[in-house]
């Protein structure tokens, strides 16, 4: 095994063994995983104006929109890579999506991962190891930008996106809708690359800075 240390403070040596384990992320070679395809997901073909109007309508009906997204890592060329979905050969997304009213974060993320990354939507063959929440992003109003903080004067935020670490087992199948691409992108490539990946994805390497990334040789 080879350890790749990412910003772990020196006093971490004094942590308990269980805490050390929780701060470690074991990642396995991309070659350990099987990738296939299934029926396409239907996406709404809408303009930005349409999307904002839909957000306003949903907010009036259900209140704050909450989304959950997964940070999933694999190893390629001895470096950690982040699994991203590419939509319409255009923009990138972390796997996940919007919660249903009353749905818990963990249940919702399991449902979304099963829908987009499993052979069947119920995902009975997949057990997702959803871990800690790495960070939260907020849409203060119906504007397009999201921020990693909620100021005290933002009394009624419109959207919250929670990012969770999801640990992979040594082997797993990923069955992806035909109109999505699942790509492994180097962490160093997404780091602060807001223009290509947006603020949430480009901030993932910083969110992972408290962990030790342990590359497992198979």
Write the layout of secondary structure elements.
Layout: E1 2-5, H1 17-22, E2 24-27, E3 33-38, H2 48-62, E4 65-71, E5 73-76, E6 79-87, E7 91-93, E8 96-98, H3 105-117, E9 129-139, E10 159-167, E11 172-177, E12 180-186, H4 187-190, H5 194-202, H6 204-207, E13 212-215
Parallel strand pairs: 2-13, 3-11, 4-10
Antiparallel strand pairs: 1-13, 4-8, 5-6, 6-7, 6-12, 9-10
GO molecular function: mRNA 3'-UTR AU-rich region binding
Pfam family, one: NUDIX_2
Organism: Gossypium hirsutum (Upland cotton)
What does the model show?
By secondary structure, this protein is an alpha/beta fold. The chain has one domain: Nucleoside Triphosphate Pyrophosphohydrolase. The protein is 23% helix and 35% strand. The strands form four sheets. Strands 8-4-10-9 form a four-stranded mixed sheet. The chain is globular, with a radius of gyration of 18 Å. It starts with a strand and ends with a strand.
